[in-house]
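Chapter review: from sequence to fold.
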Amino acid sequence: MTKILLIRHGEAAKVAGVEDPALTALGHRQATALAQTMGVNPQFALVSSPKSRARQTAEPLARRWGREISIESAVNEIPSPLDLPLAERGPWVRSLLDAEWNQLEPHQLQWRKDIMQYLQNLQQDTAVFCHFMVINSVVAYTRESAEICQFRPDYTSVTELAITSRGLELVRLGRDRDSRML
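The token string follows.
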């Protein structure tokens, strides 16, 4: 059985028009606290989305475990509609909270397939630092649910999965965020 930990990045700066914001001071503290609570687990590989906030969240744990972080584009955040200006991305993402997977564009459905294929092919216990929609995509897949938003993972929450003889299974949801904000 292979264990997979999907870890949402820490709090990132919310700056209109910035495609790849870094962690805030609070986000850095969240990442450090996460590393302290994870203990020593050197058998886990560390994988991160290419986005700065995910990489920065992984760094304290990588230092603690003495591991390198592999960057994996398959766990990057959901791509926007092809004609959507960057300034409109936030409202679009929030609109997905009440949407279903079949309402997405083909390139977004391919993004989801790529996530599942990547995770199902993991051969080693792996901690994956990623994004709200990645986590919801995987949870919806394991539940065979059409709804995009399955829960609201808090910053640095850890959702546990396992690859078993039956396939990818949800073991435990991460900490749910109290706020309605992403």
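Two observations follow directly from the output. Helices lie at 25-37, 52-65, 89-95, 106-120, 132-143. The longest strand covers residues 2-8.
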